[in-house]
Every structure is written in structure tokens, then in C-alpha cells.
Amino acid sequence: MSTEDTPKDYSESPINLEYFYTAGSATTRFLNQVKEGNIVGQGCPKCKAVYVPPRGSCPRCGVATDIEVPLTDKGCIESFTVVHIPIPGNPIVPPYVCAMIRLDGANISFLHLIQDVDIENIRIGMRIQAVWKPKEEWTHSLENIKWFAPIDEPDVDVATLRFQES
Ligand SMILES: [Zn+2]
Predict the structure, then answer these.
(1) 22 strand-pairing partners
(2) Which residues of the chain have pLDDT under 70?
(3) 54: which of 42, 88, 96, 99 fits an S-S bond (Cβ 3.0–4.6 Å)?
(4) Domains and CATH numbers, the chain
(5) How far is the CA of 58 from the centre of ligand 1 (A)?
(6) What is the pLDDT of residue 81?
(7) Residues 59-66: contacts with CB under 8 Å, at least 24 apart
(8) Residue-level pLDDT at 90
(9) Which residue, among 45, 49, 42, 30, has the nearest Cα to 142 in the 3D structure?
(10) What was the pLDDT predicted at 11?
């Protein structure tokens, strides 16, 4: 049997897509702050939930989240997964960890990388902080943060992160 007759489990089909992302006013305000190294969530005036990244309205209350809420770049790991499959164009060699990051003072989390720690030591509730790229590389993107890395603080009890009705 020649190599050409060998059954394949998969095939690679590279696809390149070019697209333009048009940020709305809420995301524009957020990304303008990110370019300056600031993470500013937006709060709901009714239920007080803080969204980061913000989308401009509170899905619970249906009102504009027009309260600017400066946050730090510290938080905890809400959940995570170990990535074992390489992603074309991604320079990070598997296995690596992607985690849902809940910043202190925020009510939702966002996806980012965890580095500077052995994978087997990563856990839900672990305290982490952003590791930023050099300032001269900052753009309007959360990719200004290279990854999040553990800090020497006690773990958070994730049950305490549940949204509390006010
Ligand atoms: Zn609300």
C-alpha cells in the first residue's frame, strides 16, 4: 500500500479570512482605555453588575451600562481548559492553558492565557495578574496583555463570585 492509499484521519485546509470589526460606542470607550493600559468596566445603574469587556447594556435589566468602573489587572481563574491541539499561526506550543478570567470587581469573565506556572498547579480560584506587553506595543486590544500569571495571594472561593441580586 502506497502512502497515497493510506486512509487519512484528517486533512488540513488553511483558510484566510479578512474582516473589519466595527466597535460600538461602549467597546470603543473600553478599547481606548486598554490602549492606555487601563481596564475600565461598565456598570449597570440598576443591578450594579460590572461588565468587562463591556457590551453597552445589561442583559439582565436591558439598560445602558453607562457607569465607568476602573478595575485593576488582578483577578482569579473562574474556569480553565488545557489546550493540546496546536492552532495554525499561534506561536504558543501546546499544552497550554486558556482560562476564564474574573477581574476583581467584575461580574463577568473573559478568556485569556495563563503562563509562568506549571499546568498541573493551575486551579479554579487561583489569584492571577496581567503580564503586559511593553507599552510601545500597546494597541486597542486585550492582546496588550501577554497573559495572566499567578500571584502570591490566597485562592478565591469561586462560590463567592456568584452574582448577588441587589
Ligand atoms: Zn443590570
Answers:
(1) none
(2) 1-4, 163-166
(3) 42
(4) 21-71 (no CATH), 73-160 (2.40.50)
(5) 5
(6) 97
(7) 65/26, 66/42
(8) 79
(9) 30
(10) 80
